[in-house]
Design brief:
The structure holds 2 protein chains of 2 kinds. By secondary structure, chain A is an all-alpha fold. Chain A contains 23 helices and 2 strands. In chain A, a hairpin with a 2-residue loop joins strand 1 and strand 2 (316-317). In chain A, helix 19 runs antiparallel to helix 20 (438-460). The longest helix of chain A has 50 residues, at 155-204. By secondary structure, chain B is mainly alpha-helical. Chain B has 2 helices and 2 strands; from the N terminus they run E-E-H-H. The chains are: A mainly alpha, B mainly alpha.
């Protein structure tokens, strides 16, 4: 047990649980139709959708993991927040959102149905549903692990209480509940964790002190990326740009329904386009918590007078302990409760995000599409609630599975490159090229997913060397992941085009509003500059460029 | 979530947009900013309280505890809470 919890901290934690369940109870009466339950009534402003868009992605696991990674690899990790997110988010806003939003779909598989056909939709829906439940279970397991390590809480108790809480408020209020708690989480994370960075900087004596104590390999973003052996992550810049910046990032931000669903909930097309742009500014700000906390932890651990070290378990350093150890170092009672609540909120909001995306895809793209086509709206809302409960139970099952066989965690790390990387090729071709055919998309997607899994297994069991994929002599897990995503994307891209050349496309009349070139450009009318998506996207890009130059 | 606007969100709203979801004829949904404000205010009060307590019973169990982070960070949270809570509450009452 590392963090001492006093009674005032318990009060803060208990208040959070009462608060989120209260929100669910309050929102239930406003959640009547399918549109209300699955898309929060399509009435959100761009600020609500934007903060939820970001929070759905910003889980506590990521916060702990990325702080730990920074301790290990240094500044390089900021690539995940900058090049690994911002270009993709802006691309989604400017180029893809108009097609998504104006087709009034409920989900990403729903777009595949309109643009291609039923089989492509069901293939993606099943892949997404399985992926989301697995992620949800893994999150639950990881959360229980963290709570046990740092607070000494019982594994079963913390897992069941958080699963039941999330299950309760999502069942009651659907996506609206999930979005409300995500926004609450956003503020909790900033108010709960940013103080770590502030106090760390105060103790060490300023930004410059921190950077002057870091070795070159840890303090740079790009200047160490020409040679894989110069940076801790063992990735070269083409790996960062193609694997992380292009395929993984675009695959995640533009096609992962978990995040895109938040933009679908906004009230009009302009708000939908502003959603990822608003999120992009806050995404760029996150390294000021995560990366700086990691760097502070590293600097303190090298200073013999600071008496700071990470937890070691069986001779292995537990990197994820960096953030909790800093909380324990700086937070007196009262603040400890706030810090723990922020992490709990992060875990639970991530869980709610997974479950609310799962219940939508299950209900619309599997149940309504294959099992029961002609039921009433009320029936589908009921089905969504059933799917929420079932999803929670399956997540808990997965969590117990992960506990009994921790090696499945390795597979989960790779799961995005199995599902999302090829899907991004399908989406890109489908949205921008008219003659891509349903069969091309279906078989391209199958080829991409199958090749990604094959590459993963081939490296895992030593059939081929990882450096064959990464085109360099050294290959860390991270760089193998980046490159595998790139190859899976390329295979899906090429196969889709080849098969499309020889198969029959959909009639153009059916593709209006879904493909660029067949869709009339919508006039935005008179708006202030800060309401125009294009202007704000350029502004976001400028901030992005400045950050990259400062930390070059 | 209604498209209800508070001063925190800078985009102007038309009266129609601001109407929000209505159920049972009358009841209008409180905006998310109200809940954010409520939560931050409550947390702010508690954390500031522990900061005031520190003045009378100093306990230097953590690093930099002598700076009393609970007090000034608690006040910042409290102020942020009010900035959300007050406009959201006014807006809610004005429209219903």
């Amino acid at each position: 047990m590392n963090l001492q919890i006093s009674s005032v901290d318990w009060i803060l934690i208990a208040l959070y649980f009462i608060f989120v369940i209260g929100i669910g109870v309050y929102l239930k009466r406003f959640t009547r139709t399918g549109e209300d339950y699955f898309l929060a009534g399509r009435k959100n402003s761009s600020w609500v959708a934007g903060l939820a868009f970001l929070s759905a992605n910003m889980g506590a696991l990521e916060l702990l993991g990325m702080t730990g990674n920074t301790f290990k690899y240094g500044m390089f990790v900021a690539h995940f927040y900058w090049i690994g997110a911002i270009p993709a988010m802006l691309f989604l806003a400017i180029y893809m959102m108009p097609f998504y939003y104006s087709s009034k779909i409920h989900s990403i598989p729903g777009y595949l149905k309109l643009r291609f056909d039923e089989k492509t939709r069901v293939l993606n829906a099943i892949a997404f549903a399985v992926m989301t439940l697995l992620m949800s279970g893994i999150n639950l397991y990881a959360m229980a692990l963290v709570l046990r390590t740092f607070l000494g809480w019982d594994w079963n108790v913390s897992m069941w209480i958080s699963a039941l809480t999330v299950g309760a408020y999502v069942t009651l209020g659907g996506l609206l509940s999930a979005i409300f708690t995500e926004i609450v989480q956003f503020f909790l994370i900033w108010f709960g964790l940013f103080l770590v960075t502030i106090l760390g900087v105060v103790e060490i004596g300023g930004w410059n002190q921190i950077f002057s104590r870091l070795p070159d390999a840890m303090s740079a973003l790009w200047s160490t990326s020409t040679n894989a052996t110069n940076n801790g992550m063992e990735v070269t810049w083409p790996g960062v740009i193609l694997g992380l910046g292009f395929v993984l990032s675009f695959g995640y931000w533009t096609t992962d329904f978990l995040v895109v669903q938040r933009a679908f909930s906004s009230k009009d097309i302009r708000s939908a386009r502003m959603t990822p742009i608003i999120a992009s500014f806050f995404k760029m700000a996150l390294p000021f918590i995560v990366i700086f906390a990691g760097l502070i932890a590293w600097v303190l651990s090298k200073d013999p007078n600071a008496h700071f070290s990470l937890i070691e378990e069986g001779g292995k350093i537990n990197y994820d302990s960096a953030l909790p150890m800093l909380i324990g170092r700086y937070y007196p009672k009262g603040l400890i409760g706030l810090g723990v609540t922020a992490l709990l909120a992060g875990f639970m909001a991530g869980q709610a995000g997974n479950i609310s995306a799962f219940n939508t895809v299950w209900t619309y793209d599997i149940y309504k599409s294959v099992i029961n086509k002609k039921a009433s709206d009320a029936h589908y809302v009921w089905m969504g609630r059933v799917a929420t409960v079932a999803g929670i139970i399956l997540s808990v099952g997965t969590a117990y599975w992960a506990k009994s066989a921790p090696s499945i965690m390795d597979y989960m790390q790779a799961i995005f490159s199995w599902v999302n990387a090829p899907l991004f090729a399908t989406m890109l071709l489908g949205m921008f090229i008219v003659w891509i055919t349903p069969n091309g998309a279906f078989w391209g997607l199958i080829a991409g997913m199958a090749s990604s899994v094959t590459m993963f297994l081939a490296v895992k069991f030593g059939w081929i060397s990882a450096s064959l994929l990464t085109l360099s002599k050294t290959a860390s897990d991270m760089s193998a992941n980046f490159w595998r995503a790139w190859w899976a994307w390329l295979i899906c891209f090429v196969v889709t085009i080849l098969i499309s050349v020889f198969t029959k496309p959909k009639p153009k009349a059916e593709l209006v509003g879904l493909v660029k070139g067949l869709t009339p450009v919508q006039k935005e009318g008179k708006l202030a500059f800060y309401q125009k998506p294009a202007v704000m996207a350029v502004f976001s890009l400028i901030v992005f460029a400045i950050l990259n130059i400062i930390f070059w | 979530m209604p498209a209800k606007k508070t001063k925190i969100k800078k985009t102007p709203a038309s009266p129609v947009e601001s109407a929000g979801i209505r159920t049972k004829g009358k009841e209008k949904m409180l905006s998310i900013w109200f809940f954010v404000g409520l939560m931050l205010t409550v947390i702010g009060v508690i954390v500031t309280g522990t900061g005031i307590n520190y003045i009378f019973h100093p306990q230097n169990a953590t690093r930099l505890a002598e700076l009393n982070p609970n007090l000034w960070w608690g006040v910042i949270i409290l102020v942020a809470g009010f900035l959300f809570l007050v406009p959201a509450w006014k807006q809610h009452n004005k429209q219903s």
